[in-house]
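Here we describe the complex-level prediction in full. Unlike the single-chain runs in Section 2.1, the two entities below were treated as one system.
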Amino acid sequence: MLEIKNVTKVFNAGTINEKVALDDVSLTLEEGEFITVIGTNGAGKSTLLNAIAGTWPVDSGEIWIGDTNVTKLPEYKRAKYIGRVFQDPLLGSAADMWIEENLALAKRRGQHRGLKIGITEEERKEYYGLLKEFDLGLEDRLSAKVGLLSGGQRQALTLLMATIQKPKILLLDEHTAALDPKTAAKVLETTKKVVEKNNLTTFMVTHNMKDAIAYGNRLIMMSGGKIILDIKGKEKQNMTVEKLLNRFEKASGEEFTNDAAILG
Amino acid sequence: MSIASLINRLPGGVAQGLIWGLMALGVYITFRVLKESDLTVDGSFATGGAVAVVLTVKGLPLFVVFPCAFIAGLVCGLCTGLIHTKLKIPAILSGILVQFGLYSINLHIQSSAANVSCNPDKYNVLLSLRNIPKAIIIGLIFAAVLIVVMYWFFGTEIGCAIRATGNNNAMAKAQGINIDNTKLIGFMLGNGLVALSGALMAHYQSFSDVSMGRGAIVIGLAAIIIGEVLSEAIFKKGCSFYLRLFFVVLGGVVYYLIMVLILWLKVDSQDLKLATAIIVMLALAIPNFRKGGKAC
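The structure predicted for the assembly as a whole is:
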């Protein structure tokens, strides 16, 4: 479903701030795979996600989604294949627009937008049902401005927006990092439900080792712009934080230096 | 300084205020929907006036004159939009550049004349200050039609995409919206409306002048802010998009009546622009100091 072939990205090339953010990275995701991505700060996990999303062009390599080579497509064209939830809850939805308007915008992702009415009566009924399933208490507030919602509600709404039209790949960029632990857990559970229900191919960046182990069916760890660990199947199921730290130290020859990732 | 002379001036003030209010609807599209400060309007207002008067003098019918003025405004907005999106120059600078350049273009349209007149005795004009009740009715009809059309348009798929772009670029792109295109459309429609009201103003005053748009952006902002302050005072909470647009036009009328009042108080007319600037500054500042108010 997703194929990343030898992708390299260097920031500030030729200056003293030069940083090789992605160093010849290759990764293939099968349909329905739910991969969690972990690594220390600056390891390249969010950079890899942005490379897939098309935030900026990569320096070399290719990215394929299904049968489409998206390497040269701008972000808004790739959006046809990609559902996305950002780390910042404010980034995923339009604050001054209504909940139903935001959903209607998402429903038309990748489609031509013309002079047809922006939201139909049937859609309203559909959105009511979908929001009810999400259990956020938002189904009766379809015409409330999104700016009035809490961070957790906005993140869950963004998740619904990202999946309202089944994406070929769902990108989650530390989407619970800005939430309090209780809300974060709820959003993660909702994520799991949505992913399983729709059998979504998912790429979830997280800074939390426990979450990376508890969710998904494959785990990769990044360091220095490379993928240094790739764990799946039985091994992933039997993984613990301790074992993972051990493997990391062996693979990278350094200590894992992100307390939040270990303790959180 | 008699009350009678003030009352005498009010109907004319309402007529002109309505035209400025229509212009403010154009400014609203860029300033409030796209959330960009578009200074093109000082130029495109005069472009609309110039095109209207020149075509009227040529004897073209009204149903050609006004659409042409509107299209001229679309082109002005297209220039600003292209400079902003393709050459990656900030919107405010793009607008200043186009406005500056339009001065020459407007002189060309008027065959190098700083102003061109279209005497209602000789030419077919839509409205004129000689018949103020008619001018007011035409202003109201334009306002009603434009508000209905804007309400409809910003509820369509593309209209919603433009609003999303103004709200949140990252979200718009993630939902597959080409934000270069939506910005272009916003700049074009905004300046189209501004040029259309420039055409109305030129007919109303029976001439167009290359500097007739000077300060138009400030008047547009004044109308928007006055309208918002009024609607907030009346409705306390937010009101529907229809009403918000209505209050923009009303803001234009109120603004112009304040000007009439200031002139009636025999304030030296050379101080008028300073007075406007101070009024707009205060109107822009008030929401920032009120609890829970949002910055502009």
